[in-house]
Amino acid sequence: MQHIEADIEQLQMKVAFQEDTIEELNKALIKQQKQLELLEFQLSHVINKVKEIEVPSGDSPEIEPPPPHY
């Protein structure tokens, strides 16, 4: 009977440890998801800024000709 009680206690400790580990992993996952969302937002913002400053290709009166080489 004592052997069964010891096994039950050991299983209870393992379950408690696993629950703690799962909770820690869940918190880490939530934190990483928030960081990922922020990085995606920032990347989107940077992409939009780059698109705004891109020089249009082709002959455009807004583009200055290159300076003459000496």
From TrEMBL:
It comes from Paraglaciecola polaris LMG 21857. This is Protein SlyX homolog. Gene3D superfamilies: 1.20.5.300. Belongs to the SlyX family. Keywords: Coiled coil. Residues 1-42 form a coiled coil.
